[in-house]
């Protein structure tokens, strides 16, 4: 064996190669002949230049290429012999070739080898999702909100309260008597409880009746975005002109059809199923995250930097998409990544560690993903996404990576289900 192996850390190996006598003449001649067929030299047709001329012009380059091929071949033979699962590309250093002696170093990252600590004593508490009628009522309110109308409260004795909307005039007056234009509003619509204004303003209006005038004295927050108003004391001269309330219609079969359902009953049945599914999924995801946190906390091992770098790119792509959907510009996205680069790196490290742990657990459980597993998941997705099975299948068959990710997610789900049977999971009472 013409090499030795040094462990730099749990996932990095350095291989040191030394050869006392290396004859590269055969490789050099082979490479020269390839070069001869490729080059076009003045005075000769392509591929017809004499070999000695090609050697004179390209000798050093060909020798380097032959040496590179020799080094690469020796390296890959060695990692195969040592059964090293390389991650990323190796780094070669200290290469020497003199008097037929060849020596070089190759540093390579490998998939970490680790053992998962005993987890039989783990204990977790899972929320009880439990469907609540209030969940359906809230959803129904959001649907009907698009059909609601603002009407004037004609009862002059009715006071302003949370949920009602004030039509008001106001003017802010600073302690020095200044009355800034940007603290002035006329016939301004303000929903009480929406927290549109600084803390205390809406609370100060509660109880007023149409036609009332009131001075509301407030102190701006210490962390207010405008420097001149931080901790400033301001009196708001306020006049309530009118009170409006939102009138929301009752859900009828006719309205239910407008929303894409057959009837009120169909609306309630389908949405109850969807709410139950979403709450159950959120509950499971929360528990799964807690399980992952515990496994990562208890199982520390070195992670290849190449895997972290790759995962950082994936995290950034996800963030980039989400930020742009929120209206972030190119510069804003760039600034965000600069500010939160450490957090992104830590997130990537966690995802790599947790992924390796789940994969190892899946292997220990001998888990496989069958075609039936995929079909079942596709059927579940189609049910809750409002798509046909054929539409979902088409999406996942359009890109091999999408299907691969789906199978990986199914395997993770199966791993979690098996794990939960191996330690204590207590369900909170409803």
Number of domains: 3
**How many separate helices?**
12
How much of the polypeptide forms β-strand, as a percent range?
15-25%
Shape: elongated
Could you name the ranges where pLDDT drops below 50 across 5 or more consecutive residues?
Answer: none
Summarize the structure.
With 430 residues, the protein is α+β, with helices and mostly antiparallel strands. Helix content is 47%, strand content 21%.
Could you characterize what this model shows?
This protein has 430 residues and is of the alpha+beta class. The strands form 3 sheets. Strands 6, 7, 8, 9 and 10 form a 5-stranded antiparallel β-sheet that branches. A 4-stranded antiparallel β-sheet has the order 1-2-4-3, sandwiched between helices. It is elongated. It has 3 domains: 3-110, Alpha-Beta Plaits, CATH 3.30.70; 149-247, Chitinase A, domain 3 (Roll), CATH 3.10.50; 255-427, Trigger factor, domain 2 (Orthogonal Bundle). The model has no long low-confidence stretch (mean pLDDT 91). Helices cover 47% and strands 21% of the residues. Helix 1 crosses helix 2 (51-81) and helix 6 (264-298) packs across helix 9. The protein has 12 helices and 11 strands. The longest helix has 35 residues, at 264-298. A hairpin with a 2-residue loop joins strand 3 (86-98) and strand 4 (101-110). The chain has helices at 25-38, 51-81, 133-145, 201-205, 253-258, 264-298, 305-325, 330-339, 341-364, 371-385, 389-397, 400-419; strands at 3-9, 12-19, 86-98, 101-110, 123-126, 149-152, 165-174, 184-191, 213-219, 233-247, 424-427. The two termini are 66 Å apart.
């Amino acid at each position: 064996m013409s090499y030795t192996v040094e462990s730099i850390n749990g996932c990095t190996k350095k291989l040191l190669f030394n050869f006392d006598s290396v004859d590269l003449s055969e490789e050099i001649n082979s490479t020269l002949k390839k070069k001869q067929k490729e080059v076009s030299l003045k005075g000769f047709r392509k591929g017809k230049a004499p070999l000695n001329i090609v050697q004179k012009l390209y000798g050093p380059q060909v020798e380097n290429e032959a040496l590179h091929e020799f080094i690469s071949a020796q390296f890959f033979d060695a990692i195969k012999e040592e059964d090293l699962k390389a991650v990323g590309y190796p780094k070669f250093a200290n290469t020497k070739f003199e008097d037929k002696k060849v020596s070089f170093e190759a540093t390579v990252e490998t998939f970490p080898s680790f053992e998962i600590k005993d987890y039989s004593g783990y204990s977790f508490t899972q929320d009880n999702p439990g469907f609540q009628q209030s969940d359906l009522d809230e959803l129904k309110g959001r649907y009907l909100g698009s059909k609601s109308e603002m009407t004037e409260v004609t009862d002059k004795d009715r006071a302003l309260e949370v949920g009602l909307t004030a039509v008001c005039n106001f003017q802010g007056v600073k302690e020095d008597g200044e009355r800034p234009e940007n603290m002035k509003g006329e016939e301004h619509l303000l929903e009480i409880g929406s927290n549109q204004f600084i803390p205390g303003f809406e609370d100060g209006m509660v109880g007023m009746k149409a036609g009332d005038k009131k001075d509301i004295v407030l102190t701006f927050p210490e962390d207010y975005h405008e420097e001149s108003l931080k901790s400033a004391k301001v009196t708001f001269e306020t006049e309530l002109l009118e009170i409006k309330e939102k009138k929301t219609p009752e859900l009828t079969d006719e309205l239910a059809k407008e929303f894409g359902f057959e009837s009120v009953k169909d609306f309630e049945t389908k949405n109850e199923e969807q709410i139950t599914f979403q709450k159950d999924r959120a509950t499971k995801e929360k528990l799964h995250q807690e399980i992952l946190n515990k496994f990562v906390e208890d199982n520390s091992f070195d992670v290849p930097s190449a895997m972290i770098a790759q995962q950082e790119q994936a995290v950034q792509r996800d963030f980039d998409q989400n930020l742009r959907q929120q209206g972030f510009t190119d510069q804003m996205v760039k600034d965000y990544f600069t500010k939160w680069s450490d957090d992104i790196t830590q997130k990537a490290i966690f995802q790599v560690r947790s992924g390796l742990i789940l994969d190892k657990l899946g292997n220990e459980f001998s888990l496989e993903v069958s075609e039936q597993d995929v079909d079942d998941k596709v059927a579940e997705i189609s049910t809750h996404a409002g798509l046909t099975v054929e539409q979902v299948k088409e999406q996942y068959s359009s890109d091999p990576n999408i299907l691969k990710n789906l199978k990986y997610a199914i395997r993770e789900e199966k791993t979690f289900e098996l794990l939960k049977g191996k330690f204590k999971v207590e369900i909170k009472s409803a």
